[in-house]
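Good day; I would like, with your permission, to put a structural problem before you. I would ask you to consider whether the tokens describe a fold that such a sequence might reasonably adopt. The full record is reproduced below for your convenience:
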Amino acid sequence: MSETVPLRLVLASASPARRKLLQAAGVEPDVLVSGVDESVVVTERAEDLCLELARLKAEAVVGRLSPAADQRTLVIGCDSVLAFDGEILGKPTDPEDATRRWLRMRGRSGVLHSGHCLIDVAGGRRAEAVASTVVHFADISDDEIAAYVATGEPLAVAGAFTIDGLGGAFVERIEGDPGTVVGLSMPLLRRLLGELDLRITDLWTKVAPGGQSVEPLGNVRS
């Protein structure tokens, strides 16, 4: 009978929203920020841009890891951009930029693309894909835009909005997986794991009341 080994997931992102999404889905990731300069990638297709950045982030973190022999380590890199009016919109450069975007976006729709790159460190195998979700923005007032931008939240996220924070009140509806808009699609992660002969249940953990300890629920066969 083959032995089982612990399965570790490393999130190559500083995004607290991505980490919370994983935790809510039963996965407790380690976090290691990639430090990738996102300006180095230039392309006219939003899908290509977010996937290439996700790939670079995952690869950068893999290059800094020294996995233990008795542990199987995976790295997930993600990146999100908004495609709107033929433009690719990442994070706003400043409050004025965020305000201009919202004046254009209100009452209209865009497509949020999130690239995912999953790498099995030991074997070097990888699986990658892009998840896309249509976002319909509310027709909000100038005062609401000003108040939202003043919070600083739009400056920290692709497209200048969230659905899991203050910006959620300004999104009328979406067509697709909400996790894509947050920045990580759990259904897509499940499929990518399957391409590496793994299951999402292999990553599940059980957190004791109060968060005192984490007990692995799933192990992967070596």
The longest strand covers residues 72-84. Residues 51 and 116 are 6 Å apart (CA to CA). Residues 4-221 form a domain with the Maf protein fold (CATH 3.90.950.10).
